[in-house]
Write a structure and sequence with these properties.
heterotrimer; A mainly alpha; B mainly alpha; C mainly alpha; A: mainly alpha; 3 helices; flat; B: mainly alpha; 8 helices; about 0% strand; globular
Chain lengths: ~80, ~230, ~120
Amino acid sequence: MELVILVVISLVMIAAAIMAIYSKNLISAIISAGVVSLLASIIYLLLAAPDVAMTEAAIGSGLTTVVFLYALNKMRKSGKDG
Amino acid sequence: MGKRIFVIITLALFVYISLPLVLDFIPTQQLSYVSQKYVQDGPEEVGAQNLVTAIIVTYRGLDTLGEVAVLFIATAGIGFILSRKKWRKRKKRSSSSILQTGTQVLLPLIIMFGIYVFTNGHLTPGGGFQGGVIIASGILVYILASPKNKFKDFLISLTESISGFGYVLLGLLGLILAAGFLDNSILPLGKFGRLFSAGAIPLIYSLIGLKVGSELVNILKYLRRD
Amino acid sequence: MQLITGLGFVLIIIGIWGMLTRKNMVKIVLGFSLVDTGIHIIMVSIGYIKGKTAPILNEAVNKAKALQEVVDPVPSVLVLTAIVIGLAVTALMLVYVVRLHKEKNSMQIDDHGELEW
């Protein structure tokens, strides 16, 4: 059962990472990177490291996403994308 | 196109080097020598239930001090880069009343939860870093809800300097009263597993939490300012 | 936990690929943060020992036999501090991107070619 959960989480993480690199829309790319961090915190929990899981859930998927969105907001009037 | 081929060759070499590391990976069977020492002697020497906290605050306390210093330098760099020129003024829209009312209910609860996480760092998972980040996210909600309010810069910088100063001061007290820098036995170790136990660990970790929280609030504040 | 180590390496490779091929500077920073996550996953998976519990000696763990019952705490400690530093470094890189964008009004790295040789 645990193996099934791990395989599913790994596949979703890899898909989200590829989407973060290849998405045309920058905001959806940033949200995909946040999804990678959130699933990573579940993996830390399964690996018996609850301290790291809390840190990753709060920093990796919370504050990092916010910092990216704030920085994107600062340079909103940009032309090209990709 | 030549660049793309170069990238593919670089990645192929990287995979070639690291593939044996994955394929021949032998899972760890027992603790390493250093960890054995920490797990065996940690409860008596330090008195903390959470061994991760015991290692962060006492055994590797100097590393944590360096890490907080790196965080401070990065924050100072961000403020320095962003404050060179005047940014263009943009009109600030006020937020919706749902967000404002929700913030009034949630902000005290979030900050209380953050304080709970870092005062119980030696008993349960969590500690200064996690609690500081939770407090910073609570203040982020406040910033989002009321963008017009003048943010209390003085309070944040006061918290930051007092907590950083107190952290170093506690470390120096350990040098005078106990065995070495950041030794936690300057206060009595107490009963194993209680809130007031493990010597100075709750105090030191609370100061680290306040320091990390105020640094992260500063990063958010610099990025928001325009 | 060979599967999780492999997952970490795949994340690192995707991140390096993104850093080397994308032209948008925000995407390059995103690739950097993916590499960060992959390295953290590998480090935690090295400390994991099958069938053992977290290094917190509460009622669930027999204190006398703690050596046989908990996983390695040292990788958790290293990763814990590395995550916090990672946020600060990512924010610093993003601020440089904001600064460069202000100079040339472009996020593409090819437009910032003053140092090209």
